[in-house]
Write a structure and sequence with these properties.
heterotrimer, A alpha/beta, B mainly alpha, C mainly alpha, B: mainly alpha, MetI-like fold, about 0% strand, C: mainly alpha, 2 domains, three-stranded antiparallel sheet, 3 strands, about 75% helix, flat, ATP binding (chain A), ABC_transporter-like_CS (chain A), nucleotide-binding (chain A)
């Protein structure tokens, strides 16, 4: 569990992060979102003390991080940044092995871990181990960057705009993969982005920041249905928030008993997909694979704030 | 490819010439007058070449070591105070003519190999220092950030990231230094250093072009070989890092 | 921070300089003499105390850069004036054989205040105009000190006094060598650079040959030119009448010219290649002809890179021209090598100091020009 208590950072007397408190539960994925200059990156960098807080505390599982030497703290926390920051003079395997080597893992354990991570990120270990960073595509480099951050099995992973340098198609895939891997490993993850869609798609919790202040910290559905300030409402955009809300829930969650015509939809599909399918095929209800139906009325009810 | 063959050939010819200079006498004969000797025999050309190379090697090694240490010092900690000064001194220092530096070393060091070594060392410091500085300060923000974020201590960052990444630039500085030193060392013979300049100066004094040519050619071929050797090394390392 | 680390360094160098002999007194110009410290001179103690105070004061606390600059300049001038004072005091009246030359202490003090000066200028970040002004002021100051006669007793100035006319001639020869070879290299090198820019096939061979030319040691290239021009003068009718000869200024000039070609040609090429393709396309798209594109777009944009070549060549040639002294080509090298032959170090200084000063001024002035050109083309 990560607890941030009254954290502030001043530059020349100006607060870039102003008295922020929030808690991220173990295994949760929290997204810090805001415009540039909102203080979200500074907040993230104070967690691994790349930026020294002016005041306030960061507690990891109840331990104040200020009591640890900064470089030892950072070796326990995974860190991935936009454009991946891979070391150009080291192979993929050596890049991934950076922190385990710093921690003095035995050679064989490191090799095994590198292969395990490469496989996890769908990169063939035999082919990619020896490659240099400049021989990777943007998507591959990004995956290696995240693999490197996860190498020493950190309990906490920090990511600063990890998908910023990817084109949209690869980005969607990378986001899916990240979500899956994070669930699988149970790693607590804090991610910074300026993209509200990304925040809604990925986050268990979203922290909206502006001018160094934390405006709202809530589940995505609450942020969409109940924005705390006009700024939050502007940031989520009012035009398609009904659709975004639908994209948060799965078909399986609202399946009701009944019968319907036509091809079935997977229970893991989002309600947004279900709505699109209803409209496209002109049906009022869709059968769900494995039994039950989802109706247009039920979808409509889900698309409104309660 | 043809370039590499030519280089190899030049190297072989050089070795053959140094091993048995007298065999090349007919080649140099046309450049002599009044039956002057075609090949310099006062001192063995091989030993002069070795002494020349040794002086250059010592000077380049010393400049590299000192230049690199200085560059590391002025890029971290309290040394950063010296950074603006170091930049100015390097820029200004490089306008000092190497010959003048050599001449000024004589009053301090006397005649012989000493002043030549000192002049070559001092002059060679600047390119090495300048390039090492560029290498150490030229890391992308992302790499620095990633290294810090993963918990590398400043010392580990220096050894594992900054120094390896600045290697190509450092080698380029060493290449500049080596080539300049190789040429300037010949002038060292005017202050009695044992270099191939001795052959050239003997040729100048006795109006024997054959001597001038053979001294010049040996130094020239050495310079080309060293230049190309360094460049090949730089290319390999740059290629590994995916730099242009 | 209470102490300024660079200030401490300057103070260490400077105090070492104060402890060592300021000058060397020699009964004649060849023999080794005895070292004499600043404190042993009349007025020496207060001067030494003033310098010491200056050095200590600048290592304490954070002075504004302008104040540091003033301190450095006044220290610099004081050290030079002390040298003049020592010379006029130590030389017996009417004695023309005795020599008073600067010794290690003087050079260290000069180094300390020189570094202080460089540090102050670096921190001041003066504007372009300000730096021109500072260069002019420095030149004016040096000229004033030299003209004032305060240094006339110093050995180098005595060497100068005894060969005033020769010095003038060699200075002219040196400038002619450096600037003449530069001019010739620009005349040939810029068109050659443009040519290989437009005919990429020729880039490899041309640059390869020029590269190899550059690796020939200067001493050898100068030497090889002698028989070449001797042959030209002897076999080409009319060449000798034009002043072409195996010895003298011609071989040196051509050797320097050959060394200058590589920087000029390669920088011309680099400057032209550095202009973005989009800019060139835009110019063509606006209906400019190729010569117009070259003259109105490419050359102006490549100017800073070209000026950088001029700087490299000029600084390099001012230095290399010294070697002309070894083959009878004239220039300040004549004094350097004469001095080395006679082990008369004052004579070496008479050749080396103006060469260094010339290279320094040329380097700084061209740096300023390059910056001005960069401002024109951001």
């Amino acid at each position: 569990m990560i607890e941030i208590r009254n954290l502030s950072r001043l530059y020349d007397g100006l607060a870039v992060v102003d008295d922020v408190s929030l808690t991220v539960e173990t295994g949760q994925l929290a997204v810090l979102v805001g415009t540039s200059g909102s203080g979200k990156t500074t907040l993230l960098r104070m967690i691994n003390r790349l930026v020294q807080p002016s005041s306030g505390q960061v507690l990891i599982d109840g331990v104040d991080t200020a009591t640890l030497p900064a470089h030892l703290l950072r070796r326990r926390i995974g860190y991935a940044i936009q454009g991946h920051g891979l070391f150009p003079h080291r192979s993929v395997a050596q890049n991934i092995a950076t922190v385990p080597r710093l921690l003095g893992w035995p050679r064989r354990q490191i090799d095994a871990r590198v292969d395990e991570l490469l496989a996890l990120f769908q990169l063939d270990p035999a082919a990619f181990r020896g490659r240099m960073p400049h021989q990777l595509s943007g998507g591959q480099a990004q995956r290696v960057g995240v693999a490197r951050a996860l190498a020493a099995k950190p309990d906490l992973l920090l990511m600063d705009e990890p998908f910023g340098a990817l084109d949209p198609l690869i980005r969607a895939k990378a986001q899916d993969d990240l979500r899956q891997i994070q669930r699988q490993l149970g790693t607590t993850l804090i991610l910074v982005t300026h993209d509200m869609t990304e925040a809604v798609d990925l986050g268990d919790r979203i922290a909206v920041m502006d001018g160094g202040k934390l405006l709202q910290y809530d589940a995505p559905a609450r942020i969409l249905t109940d924005p705390a300030t006009p700024f939050v409402r502007d940031l989520i955009g009012t035009a398609d928030r009904a659709l975004r809300l639908l994209s948060l829930a799965r078909v399986g969650d609202i399946a009701a008993p009944g019968q319907a015509e036509g091809p079935a939809i997977a229970p893991g599909a989002s309600l947004r997909d279900a709505l699109a399918e209803c409209l496209w095929s002109g049906r009022d209800a869709l059968p769900v694979e494995g039994g039950g139906i989802v109706t247009l009325n039920a979808l409509r009810a889900k698309a409104r704030p309660r | 490819m043809t370039g590499r063959i030519l280089l190899g050939l030049a190297g072989l010819v050089l070795l053959a010439f140094l091993a048995a200079p007298s065999a090349f006498a007919p080649l140099f004969q046309p450049f002599t007058r009044n039956n002057a000797p075609a090949i310099y025999t006062q001192t063995s050309l091989l030993s002069l070449t070795l002494s020349h190379l040794a002086i250059v090697a010592v000077a380049v090694a010393a400049s590299t070591l000192v230049g690199l240490v200085l560059a590391v010092l002025v890029t971290r900690g309290a040394g950063r105070e010296f950074l603006p000064l170091a930049r100015t001194v390097t820029a200004v220092g490089q306008t000092f003519p190497p010959v003048a530096v050599l001449a000024l070393a004589v009053p301090v060091m006397g005649f012989g190999t000493g002043p030549t070594l000192v002049a070559l060392f001092l002059y060679g410091l600047l390119p090495v220092f300048e390039n090492a500085l560029a290498g150490l300060t030229g890391q992308t923000a992302q790499v620095t950030e990633a290294a810090r974020g993963m918990g590398l201590t400043p010392r580990q960052r220096l050894w594992q990231i900054d120094l390896p990444l600045s290697l190509p630039l450092l080698l380029a500085g060493m290449r500049l230094t080596a080539v300049i030193s190789l040429g300037t060392a010949t002038i060292g013979s005017t202050v009695a250093a044992r270099t191939l300049g001795e052959v050239i100066i003997a040729g100048l004094l006795s109006s024997n072009t054959a001597f001038v040519l053979q001294g010049g050619l040996v130094v020239g071929i050495l310079a080309v070989l060293i230049h190309q050797g360094f460049q090949a090394l730089e290319r390999r390392i740059r290629g590994r890092m995916g730099l242009a | 921070m209470l102490l300024s680390p660079p200030g401490v360094l300057f103070a260490l160098i400077g105090t070492a300089g104060l402890a060592l002999p300021l000058v060397q007194f020699k009964p004649n110009r060849i023999v080794t003499g005895e070292g004499i410290g600043l404190h042993a001179l009349p007025l020496g103690l207060p001067l030494a105390a003033a310098l010491c105070g200056l050095l200590l004061a600048t290592c304490l606390g954070r002075w504004p850069a302008a104040l540091r600059l003033a301190a450095a300049v006044s220290g610099f001038v004081t050290v030079i004036l002390s040298l003049g004072l020592a010379a006029s005091h130590l030389t017996p009246e009417g004695n023309t054989i005795a020599r008073v030359s600067p010794a290690s202490g003087f050079w260290l003090l000069l180094l300390a205040f020189g570094l202080m000066l460089a540090d102050a200028v670096g921190r001041l970040r003066p504007s372009l105009a300000m730096r021109w002004l500072m260069l002019a002021a420095a030149l004016g100051l040096v000229a004033a000190i030299l003209a004032s006669g305060l240094l006339d007793g110093v050995s180098v100035m005595r060497e100068y006094a005894s060969r005033r006319d020769l010095f003038g001639r060699e200075a002219q020869a040196h400038l002619m060598l450096a600037f003449g070879s530069l001019g010739a290299a620009l005349l040939v090198g810029i068109p050659a650079g443009i040519a290989i820019f437009q005919a990429p096939r020729w880039r490899g061979p041309v640059l390869g040959v020029l590269n190899i030319l550059q690796t020939i040691p200067s001493l050898a290239l100068f030497g090889i030119m002698i028989p070449v021009f001797g042959w030209v003068a002897a076999s080409l009718p009319g060449a000798a009448r034009l002043g072409v000869a195996g010895i003298g200024v011609f071989p040196a000039l051509v050797a320097l010219f050959l060394y200058s070609l590589l920087p000029v040609v390669s920088n011309t090429l680099a400057g032209l290649s550095g202009v973005p393709a989009a800019t060139r396309d835009a110019a063509l798209g606006l209906g400019m002809t190729r010569p117009q594109v070259l003259a109105q777009v490419l050359v102006p944009l490549a100017l800073p890179v070209l000026l950088a070549a001029v700087r490299i060549v000029l600084v390099q040639n001012i230095g290399l021209a010294v070697i002309a002294g070894l083959i009878g080509g004239g220039g300040f090298g004549t004094f350097v090598f004469q001095g080395l032959n006679q082990t008369a170090m004052d004579l070496v200084l008479l050749g080396a100091l103006p060469t260094i000063a010339l290279a320094l001024v040329a380097g700084i002035a061209l740096d300023l020009l390059i910056q001005a050109a960069h401002r024109g083309t951001p």
